[in-house]
Amino acid sequence: MTQLNIFIIRAVFGAVFAVVLTRMFYGKVEIVYVAGLAVFLVGMAYVLEYFRKRKKNIE
């Protein structure tokens, strides 16, 4: 899979989970909160991937 495909999948899942989480905890879906949470979730996916790859290289 190319990096673009992985990004698109992560962005879609990030948006879906952001809507679900915002709806569960905030009660209503506002685009600003959903966009911010989606960016955070996708960013954390890349941060965790970085740490996982770095750990593999150390061992």
Report on the architecture of this protein.
By secondary structure, the protein is mainly alpha-helical. It has one domain. Helix content is 88%, strand content 0%. The chain is built from two helices and no strands. The chain has helices spanning 3-26, 31-58. Helix 1 (3-26) packs across helix 2. The radius of gyration is 14 Å and the shape is elongated. The model has no long low-confidence stretch (mean pLDDT 90).
Shape call: elongated
Relative helix content? over 70%
Characterize the largest beta sheet: strand count, sense, and whether it forms a barrel: none
What is the string of SSEs from the N terminus onward? HH
Report low-confidence residues grouped into runs of 5 or more: none
Summarize the model shown.
With 59 residues, the protein is mainly α.
Which keywords apply here?
59 residues; 2 helices; 88% helix
What's the helix and strand layout?
Elements (H helix, E strand, L loop, with lengths): L2 H24 L4 H28 L1
